[in-house]
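Show me a record, fold above all:
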Amino acid sequence: MNTPLVSIIVPCYNYAHFLGQTLDNVLSQQYQHWECIIVDDGSTDDTAAVAASFAAADSRFRYFYQDNKGLSGARNSGITGSKGIYIQFLDSDDLIDPAKLKTQVAILEADATIDITYGDSLFFHTDNQDKLYPSRRLSDHHRPEKLRGGGRRKAMLERLLVNNIMEVSCALVKKQLVMEVGPFDETYKSYEDWQYWIRCALHNANFDYSPDEGTATYIRSGHQSMMSNKKKLVLHGIRIRKFLQPHLGFTQRLYNTGRLFKLYVRMVFKLY
């Protein structure tokens, strides 16, 4: 198997207390031909010191500091500085399976028509990392229906119309696609990844859903995060659906209009 370079982009804002574990997780990858770009998005904690300790020990880690631009801006800076053929986004409080890069690189190398391959996500409480759950509610009894699957524009818009299909760290993405689609929209402060996958689908990217053993992403819950502001989520949910509307067929527009109406009701009556 070829060993193309994978660029792992880790945006970090005041998560020094989680960053070390995430970077150790990078070191644990079975696939070792990677670079890890740590983008410090204006942190005021010990992020710089944690990142510096890893960069001093292993030259594959690179650290950049910038004034705060938000998650999208930090990812975009990482993309700009990346040298890899493939890109793995990894938030600084999350983890990926040790076999993820190895397995997903093999998928992309085996089929040149695939632009994005992704697996499943599991969730853990920051105080009990050995227990994994199927949803953010951290309950074995709540198993949300997941609209997974692969394909190009039409098939993926059908899924993305309902909801986001994956956490951002689930995917391994061809850098060529990222350069064609363009940067994350830095005006989105939530759901920026959902909007990005929609743009990839509109670009006719070929998505591959392969939940093979070893491809999982592990998402940390039980701490304050950018997903905690429910009003902001509703506002950006409205924005996502307005963005989708002109790209949909008649039936899809009816569905999307209904979802928009429900979001407006939530805003008016503060049901968040």
Summary: Residues 250-268 form the longest helix (19 residues). Residues 26 and 237 are 32 Å apart (CA to CA). The two ends are 49 Å apart (CA to CA).
